[in-house]
Amino acid sequence: MTATVRRALVTGASTGIGEATVRQLRALGWEVIATARRAERLDALAQETGCLAVPADLTVPADVERLVSEVSAGGPLDSLVNVAGGAIGADSVATGSPEDWSAMFDRNVLSALRLTQGFLPLWEADGGGDIVFLTSTAAHGTYPGGGGYVAAKHAERVIANTLRLELVGRPVRVIEIAPGMVATPEFALNRLGSAEAAAKVYEGVAAPLVADDVADAIVWTLTRPAHVNIDSLVMRPRAQASNTLVARD
Q1: Three-class SS state of 178
Q2: Helices 16-27 and 39-49 sit at what angle, rounded to 10 degrees?
Q3: Does residue 8 have a pLDDT over 80?
């Protein structure tokens, strides 16, 4: 690897926004480490793009430690892109499962926290890097049936905001990307449990965002000059004005 090649670790890389981010960074010539739980999907992505596949379950601390060690052994890391996460269900606060809320907190908040804590000491030693937190417009406002996911994404956003204050003056950029309605193959399906229910989320919406739109925003923030930090970027499809107001045909 030459000194001009940049390295990124992208989580949640087996599908959706994570996969699209891997593809776009590789197209720019970055060295990319892709991680997710599904090894077979990562292997296919590696064969197509030339990324390095390192499967890991980020809710398991031992897996995170192994991932940090393997990535660090390959040289300095320029960017950590925290995409892994997701929602479970659309229950009200009154009926929501504490187990589901705990799982969403682990996937969206603690996974990103564990990796961030793993790489911060290394950045202090080798000159710095960038951390991207992929949150959601759910991190900026709530909606009925979204309590658990909203709470998790608010927590993830607060980590980014607090970390930016704690690291002021140090060579680490902390970036939040908060997309609204994004039509990906698995997000709504995993959340609602059926293809029919997932399709209704996007029904009548002329053009929801797609994974490449969000990946493009992530890549744009990472490729700004080193002195430019994009603190928070909120993006929605034109058809969506808020978490609850969407134009449908």
Answers
A1: strand
A2: 20
A3: yes
pLDDT in tens, 47-72: 999 999 999 999 999 999 999 999 99
Average pLDDT, rounded, for the chain: 95
0.85 cut: is pTM over it? yes
Residue found under tokens 């293809």: 195
Number of CB atoms found within 10 A of residue 182's CB: 21
Residues marked active site are found at 149
> Helix 16-27 vs helix 211-222: angle between axes, to the nearest 10 degrees?
50
Q: Cα(242)–Cα(137) distance, rounded to whole angstroms?
A: 8
pLDDT band at 190 (very low <50, low <70, confident <90, very high): confident
Do 137 and 236 touch, CB atoms closer than 8 A? yes
Three-state SS at 166: helix
Instruction: Report pLDDT digits (tens) over 132-169.
Output: 999 999 999 999 999 999 999 999 999 999 999 999 99
Contact assessment for residue 7 and residue 31, using Cβ atoms and an 8 Å cutoff = yes
Contact 208, 152 (CB under 8 A): no
Name 177's bridge partners: 134, 233
Range 45-49, long-range pairs (CB < 8 A, 24+ positions): 45/13, 45/14, 45/19, 49/22, 49/23
Distance of alpha carbon 191 from alpha carbon 143, whole angstroms: 15
